[in-house]
Every structure is written in structure tokens, then in C-alpha cells.
Amino acid sequence: MSTSESSDQEKKGLLQNDEKKIVLEGGTSSSEEENNLSLEPQSMIIKQDEDEEEEEELPGPKFKLVIRNITIRQHTVKSPKIRFTFGGNFKVVDSRHKGGKIEEIGEKGKQFTTSNCEVDTGGSGGVFKNTFIKYKRFNNYEDLEDQELTVELITAGCCKIATQGSAKINLLELANSHIQREVQTEIHQKGKHKITGKVSFHCYLQEVWNFNLHFYQFEGINLLGNQNDQEPDPQIKLKIKSAFLNIFRRDKNWTNRDCKSEPELNTKNPRWEEIGNITYRGIFSELENEDLLCEVFNHNTLKSSTKMGESLIEMRGFLDYGLLEGPLVLTKSSNVKNESTGSKEKQISKTEGGTIKGLVEVEELPPHQQYGDIIILKPGRTYIGVHLIRGVNLRSADPNGFSDPFVIVEFGGFKQRTKVIYRSLDPIWEETLYFSIKVGLLTEQNIGKKGNIKVMVFDDDEAGDDFLGSCEIELKDIVTSPQGKAGKGPNECQTRVLNERYSLYYNGEETEQKVDLKAWFVPDVPSSFKFENIQKKQTKTKLKKSFAKRETAWRQGIPEKNLEEGDYEIKGADEDYCERFIPTFMFKMDLPRDLRDRKVIARTVKCFTYENDEITFGGRRDVWCSPNFFLSLMKGSQEEHAALHVSMLLGVDIDAYLCQGKTKNGEEHYWVMIRENNGTITFVECSTGKEYHLENKWKGIPEIEIDPKDKKKNKKNKQKKINLIESSDDELETKKTKKKKKEDKKKQSKKIELESSGDEKDDEKKKEGEEDEEDEEPEPEPIKDELILPYMTIEIIANHENLWGNINETMDPAEILYDLENKKSWHPFVDPDEGFSKEVKPFYEACRLGPRSSEGRAKGFAIRIRKEVIAGYTNFRHGKNLKTAFLKKFTPVIESGLDYYEKKAVGNLDEEDEKNYKIWRGKITELCPQGYIFDAFTINFTYVDPTRIRNWIMEKYDFHKEEDINTVFACGAYVQPYFGRVSSVWVMLCVMRVKPKTEGEKEEENKKDEKKDKKEKKSKKKDKTSKTKKPKSKGNQLSTPLLNDETSSEDDELGKN
To answer: Positions of the region Disordered (predicted)?
Structure first.
């Protein structure tokens, strides 16, 4: 196809788009378009094809692409248009240098083009009021990795369309990244790349999915009673009040759009353990913009049930928090006589009827998920808008002298974040975040309970974000601001607008860092609202006087000897330099339903990065971060990990405590204690997840009283049960002894050398000869290993309600009892009989763990890490003129078995896992070329930063310095995501060296050469080449072609990277 023909066809297609697929404001459109996520009142909609909407039964994942809010800045083109190409594997191949020709290969993706700029101020910026909606079905998820979204800056003349620059985004990256995108269009001219503009847009690329929502553990608080003030029988009904008319399938398979509970009898504070399921079909961003209609009825079997109230709860953030909460409002209408006219008029009154809250979980999520979203403002709701303009003079947090800043805004317990601006100390965000004000009645008091708006600036870091500073927006400053315009596009409104430059505070002190922002209510609140009683967050405050006074009296009850050995600290300073009582850093955290295993909880806590306070807070020590702040940073020191661990265990009704004492080397340390029901004390070391069990260290929880009629039977059963337990203990110990012997035998055999390195080295290697030999018969009585604790002293124990000081004669944690009720051993800070316990409460909004990363996102991290390690090895060896060969066929085999190490770290291995591990290990050894020595090691990381992981590996191990050109490598990575957006990363690096020949092999080879020489002399052949040619060894024969084949295939992969 000639260039002129293609340009004419492109122009023709462009005109067809303009004529047929753009629906102007006031035009006709389908019902789906009118209610679609992407519709804006003043926008132009590019319609999807009808056959794509009905394409339901075809195989393969179906994705929906929505592009909206398109802007351009710093462009050098007059009257530009933007053309998007979605998917396809089309490319032009020029093989003329090989005697071929220019060929067009593959299939073109779907194209759509904007209209001209509505507002074009030249290079300073332009706005396109178009919204594009496209559906595409892929054969499989792997197609996302091979296809792209192309963004082209074009100009359309009278005769042709000219491309003035382009940029490409991989679809796999797009489906797992932030919804807000900005690309830099470039054009190649005269051997140089010229930047022609920066295009920003919101892009949804999400799979159309059947979301099965499970609602459970709902409770009503202070519900309205009956007319006679009798206790009601409340029943709850849930229904998604859809804003999108085309979300459910049209057949009869999807009919569960609502669910209801069984009635709870005679209570104003009901609790419904199970409500039911609702199925929703659509993309995730559409689901988050829906509302859940919650209605509570007073159940009556004889008469119709009467409504006690209803609440319209936003689904936004349900995946992040898992918690739905809203105020109930009872609306009544009555006919009131108008005295002036004499006619009856309808009057509506609203009454607050308590609060409803509960948990929701999605049984299965799409494997690829984007993050970030754009709130669609709905009529009848009041919002707070915060527009982040820019940061000024921000602190450098990276070694390159820059930061990668983004902003988290928090209001009413909910958080939203902006996009990241990379390598900048003066970032421009120009991003608006909206928070819905979730109150029953819009009153000054109800809004004031939400508190002020907190703005926090961070440096993006995959190993845990770095805190740059924070500020606070007071609501009273918003309502005293002048009138002005706020918002953009369909959200533009006239209201009072706060436009201010705020200084950021760091370590409780004002810095030179600034943030420009705007804030407003939409629609505006009544002018009578002043918000003067909202207390501003303070910095650098001392412990409350009531706590300080009590501390003085409490310390008098600690023996002098104990005070000499320990500090007995009862307070900690938070990130704002405010002193807090240690128990207030803990609370009963609501956990997701499938996070109940205490081993998994311990592993989740361990995956939060450990970092000293001196690094996090610029030299400041002993900082106790609030749980909300710690979960935002995703890194902290030992006290934050221990407090989070206790909060999570308390959330699943485990009797857990935070312990403070000293380790064997005399350093201050924090760990977790669990009081088991059977009287055992379990210490959990947060940094390793290892448990230490001390039997009979407290009285335990007494057994439930038994009915007198069954006492005789239960006594017999109890005696039998004790005998069985005792015998089973002996049998278990014997089995353990046999198992140890089998493991010793296996250790002596040749196997893969797997090392565990870094921050998480496993203490699994044992000295030879410690176990009994196989010939010896087992002892009749089991011999238990002596428990050695890593802790030397214990000073205080605390939970979310109280703190106890150790007043025993000894401070050795292995030598004391843990009956905290015994005041002769443990000195309580708060006496339960006093009213002071009400003072012990969190100073922050109760938070929840964030969601797990999606399967696709975790896989993307693993691919990036593997490629970074390979690139690091390749670049180093290339600089030393050393050949690098990574065997690509090893990668899928390695990565298929790395989950074994994660299960082992958690402690959830079973016989099937051990069996699969042996099979996996055998597959790896089979792949190793003959004549090679195989060496491998696995390393565990708690961060997903590819560069940091690569640097750590190359500093710790010097396998990349192997000078033998026949040395080959293999690499694999596995990422296991956990709640809280943390992950456990396993990297396995394999090194295969040519096996050196033994003396016997060398002699045998020499003998063969001598025999050959004799045969050649006898035959009297004078061909010199045949006389001097020596046969290659078996190892070289196999390794040489293997190196050539695998090197080329891996080079292709590196080239793509």
C-alpha cells in the first residue's frame, strides 16, 4: 500500500468517525451511553459497536477501554488532534537490507480520533471534550503483554493526515497501573528524537467481570424503637441502586440483585452474621461508583413490616477497607393544613435512626486491576473537593537528588492519592480528589465529627514510601473563603473556594516545602456553618496531664531494682512529635474474612519493610508511627510492626499483647505475646515470624461448665481423652525422631544447593552428629530440646486497654508467670475498677488493611525483577568482555515451584507440597546440561523494587564475575501478595559451571588418544587435519549448541526489555 493511499484511507476513516460515531450534546444515544461511567454532560461520546456489546458467550477475557478527560500541554503543533489505537499487533517490517521489501504484518487495532481542541492556548495547553468507549475480547491474558495502546499527535489537512509524534503504552502495564496517564509524544527527525507534546488522559482498561459480593457481619447501632418504645425485631435488606442500566446480564442467570437477612428479635443493636450475596456484572470502576441501598425493617409476621430507616452507602473504597458504613434516616411524609390557604400540603420530615455498618468481600477479582479512580458526583450528595496544584521546593529523598512525589489526602477516615510525578522537586499534579460527606442529616455538628482534611506528601518507593511532610486544611478556612469557580468540566460549580499555599511540617517543625491547593464544598454548605469547634491537629505536645500524673504514681509501685535494669517506658512520640500512651497505638482491627490464620498474619506483618527511625525521620529516634501512618508508609521499625501485629491478632479475638524488654546483647526490643487458652505463653518474633512456646505459664481459661446430668459420662470421656493425648504425644515424638533420621540421610546425598540469604536467612542447617544414629533404637521417653529465648528481660506488657509493669523478682521472661490479674507480679497502669479506662482510646480513625495486589500485578512485578537481574548480569559481563547466557527454558520451571518456599516460611506445608517439591527439584536437575555442576540459591525480599533487588544480589554474590565463557545462568522470580499491599518476593538464581575433569578421566582420555594415534600410523593416512583433530568430551558436545541456542533466545527477551 502506498503512503498516499494509506493517508487517504486514514483521512476517510477520520471523517467517518466525525460524522457517524460522535454524539454531540443533546444528540440521541443508547441507554448504556446515557448511564455510562464515561459520560459527561458536555462531552462527545464515541460509540462502541453493537455487536461488541452483545458479545457475551465467546471465549477469552473481555476488556472495556474508556478514555476521557484528554488534555495536551507543551505542544508544538497548531490545532492538534489525538488519535488512539487500541491493541493489534500491526507493524511495518523493512527487510530491504536483506534483499526483501517493506511489508505490513499483523492486524491493526481499533482507532478513534478526537475532534479539535475546545480550548487551545497554544503550547500552554488544550482540552479535548471527547470520551471513547471500546470493547475488545482477547484470546487470553498473554495477549495483553504483546499489544499496546498507541497515542499519536496528528494534524488533519485538506489532503492528508500527518503524524507529529507518538507514544506507546503496553496493555499489560496499562491494565495494572494508575488510571491517570500522561505520555510524551516524540517524533524522529534527522536522527534525533524531538518532543512534540505531553498528552494526559484518564484511561480505564478493565475486564468485564461477574463480581459476586458477599455481605456479612452487619450490625445496627442505636436503632429506632417501636411507637410504644418496645424493642423492635429488625431485619435488613440490601440492594445495589444501580446508576448504570446495562450492568446485569439479560438472561435469567443473574437475578440475585438484592439480599436480606433473618430478623433479630427484641433489640435496638442487632447483629446479622450473614446477609447474602449480590452479583454485579461490569468493570470494577463502575462497581465502585454504585450505591448500596440499605433498608432496615421492623419484622412482623402477621402484618406488613414497617421501615425503621434507610441509608444510601457508597461502594467506593469497599475493596480498600472492606467496610460499609452509613447513617440510617427515617423519612416520613404527612399532610399539614396550610392556615393561610386552608388546603393540605405534603410535609416531609427526616429523623436520624442510628447507624448501620458491615463487611463486604468479593469472592473473586479479575487478575488485572488498575488503581486510582475518578469520582462521579451524584445529585443529592455533598462533597469536599481538594485540588492539588503543585509542590514547591520539596525535599530530595532519592540518591539522584530528586523525589518521586505524590499526595495522600485523608478525610473522615478515607484516603485518596494522586498520581506520581517522577524526578521532580517542584511537581505539578493538577489533580482533583472528591470526598463524599457521609452523614445522615447535613448539619454542622455531623460534618464537624469528620475532622479537618489532612494532606501528606510522600516520595514513591517500591521498598516503602518516604515521608516528605504534611499539612492540615481546616474546614473553617473553606467556609470563610471568597466565592469563585471550582472543578472542571461537568463538575464545575460556583462556591466558596479556598486557594492557599501551605507549608509542610516534618518531624513537628515547619519546613521550606510548600504545597499549592484549593478546597471547596460542592454544593456549598449553608453560610451558618462555621466549623469553629473542630480542634486542629497539634504537633510537639507532651503526654496528657492526666496520664503524666498517673505515671508518677505508677512508677512508685515498681521496685527500684527493676527500674535500674529497665526504662519502663509507658509513652511514645508519634510522627508529629506528640507523646501518646503506648496502648493507644493498638486497637481491634477488622480483618478480611480470609485473613484469620495467625501464621499468615505473622507473615503479613513481616512483609512490611523494616527501616530504622533514623533513616525514615532524618536522624530522629524512637518514633511510634500511628497505625494509619505506618500503613501509608508500608515500612517502619520494630515497635510499629509489633503494634500492628497485636492489633491484627486482637481483631480475630486472640489474647495478644505487646512486650518491651531487652535482647541478649542488651538492646531494647519489642515483640508479641499470646496467652493460649491451655495456659501456654507464646512469644512471636515479628522480624522472623518464629514462635517460642512456654508451657504452664498462666492459669489459662477454665473449661465451660458441664451439665450435672452429663458429669459422669464426661469424666470417663475426659479420662480417656487425657490418656489418648498422652500416648499420641509419645507417638508424635517417635515420628519426629524417625523423620529427622530420614532428613539426615537425604542431606548426605547429592542435591541442589539452595541457600537462603539476606534479611531472612533460615536457621535450618543443623550440625551433623546431633541426632541419634539410625542403628540405635529410639528411647522410650521423648527428649525435648531446651527452649532458648532471644530475650533477656521483659519490662512491660501492653494491649489496647492497659499496660502492666513487671514487678517480679526476676525479669527473665522464661522464669516468670503471666497472670496479669495478679497485682503482686504485674503492676497495672489502669485499674479496671476506675473510670480512667475511658481515657485509653485511639487518637486516630480506626483503619483497615489495604487489599492484596492483583494476580496480574504480582506477575508483572516478578517479570520486572527477573529482567532486571538478567540485565544487571548481562551489562556487567558485557563490560568485562565476558559472554552471558541465561537459559530461558529454566525460567517457567523455576517459577512454578518457588511458592514452596513461601508456604514453608508461613509454616503451612503439607505432604502434597513436599511431594510436589521433590518433583520440581527433579525437573530442574533434568534441565541441567550434562557435564555441568549445578549451583542455586534462593533469596527472600519484602519489597518489589527491581533495582534494589538486583543491586543487593550482585553485592552479596559474585557469580556474575565468573570468567569461564562456558558458565551459564538461569533466573526466576515469584511474588506472593498479601493484604496491606505488601508482598513477599522470592528470587532464585542458578549458576552452571563446566565440571572439572578428574585425574582418572584425564588418564582415560590420554589412553584413547594414544590408541587413536597408533591406528592412524598403521593406516598410514597423511591427512594432517584428521591426525590433529581430537574428539570433544561429552560435556562439551552437549553444552556448545545449547549455549548458542539459549543465548539467542534470551537476547531477544533482553532486547524487548
So the answer is: 1-60, 730-785, 998-1057
80: Cα within 13 Å, side-chain hemisphere: 31
User: 88 burial class (0-12, 13-18, 19+ CB within 10 angstroms)?
Assistant: middle
Q: What pLDDT, on a 0 to 100 scale, did the predictor assign at position 399?
A: 85
Beta pairing, strands 509-522 & 383-392: antiparallel
Selection from 201, 183, 199, 166 nearest residue 73 by Cα: 199
Question: What separation, in Å, do the N-terminal and C-terminal C-alpha atoms of the chain show?
Answer: 31
The pLDDT of residue 507 is 84
- Can you tell me which residue has the cell 507480679? 825
* pLDDT for res 826: 96
Contact 670, 642 (CB under 8 A): yes
Predicted local distance difference test score (pLDDT) of residue 905: 92
Task: Give residue for cell 547466557.
Answer: 885
The predicted pLDDT at position 954 comes to 93
CA distance 896 to 986: 12
- Distances, alpha carbon 210 to alpha carbons 299, 518, 995, in Å: 32, 38, 55
**72 and 197 in contact (C-beta within 8 Å)?**
yes
- Cell output for 132: 471513547
Grid look-up 507543551 returns: 74
Report residue 655 as a C-alpha cell: 489474647
Per DSSP, the three-state class of 578 is: coil
Q: Quote the pLDDT of residue 748.
A: 43
> What are the Cα distances from residue 751, in Å, to 30, 766, 920?
65, 17, 12
CA distance 556 to 554: 5
How far apart are the C-alpha atoms of 5 and 503, rounded to whole Å? 59
Which set of grid coordinates corresponds to residue 1054?
533482553
Say if residues 501 and 514 touch (Cβ distance below 8 Å): yes
Q: Write down the pLDDT at residue 96.
A: 78
Q: How many CB atoms lie within 10 A of CB 489?
A: 13
Secondary structure element (H or E) that encloses residue 203, with its range: strand 192-207
> What pLDDT, on a 0 to 100 scale, did the predictor assign at position 710?
52
Can you tell me which residue has the cell 492540615?
Answer: 472
SS3 content of the chain, % helix, strand, coil (to 5): 25, 35, 40
Q: Which residues of the chain have pLDDT under 50?
A: 1-56, 244-255, 711-742, 745-784, 1025-1057
Q: pLDDT value at position 946? A: 92
Dig out the grid coordinates for 212 from the structure.
459476586
Q: Phi and psi dihedrals of 48, rounded to 5?
A: -85, 155
What is the distance between the alpha carbons of residues 337 and 283, in angstroms, rounded to a whole number?
50
- DSSP state at residue 20: I
Question: Nearest Cα to 796, choosing from 886, 920, 669, 903?
Answer: 669
Angle at 214 (CA atoms; ends 212, 220), nearest 5 degrees: 150
Alpha-carbon dihedral 355, 359, 362, 363, rounded to 10 degrees = -140
- Would residue 79 be called left, alpha or beta, if left means φ above 0 and alpha means ψ between -120 and 50 degrees? left
Neighbouring C-beta atoms of residue 733, cutoff 10 Å: 16
Q: Which amino acid is located at 456 in the chain? A: M
